[in-house]
Amino acid sequence: MTDVPEISALAINVAIPEQLQWTDERRGEAFRLLTITVRMLPDGTLAAKAYGRPVAGGRGGYVSFRVPDRPEFTELIESAATRAGALWSAHGGLGRAVAEGT
């Protein structure tokens, strides 16, 4: 392949350690924030949104929340992005089952 593929998105999901999880409210419903989705923007910077489950139970909607601007979240996001980069760069190629569509 001689052309460089255009990458439209790079994203990872990061589990929020229990001690950093928090509760927030949207549309009158409380959510416990459990994961952060981190995207790498075209300029190489990172953007992040938090997602979770309704405290009252049930599936709830797919609602994003702002990640608090605190050093421990910055560290979590940046270290997860660095780890994901290392994992991507060491990939083992397309697995046989995936390549065969199974």
Automatic annotation (TrEMBL):
Superkingdom, natural source: Bacteria
Name of the protein described by the UniProt record: Uncharacterized protein
Organism in which the protein naturally occurs: Microbacterium rhizosphaerae
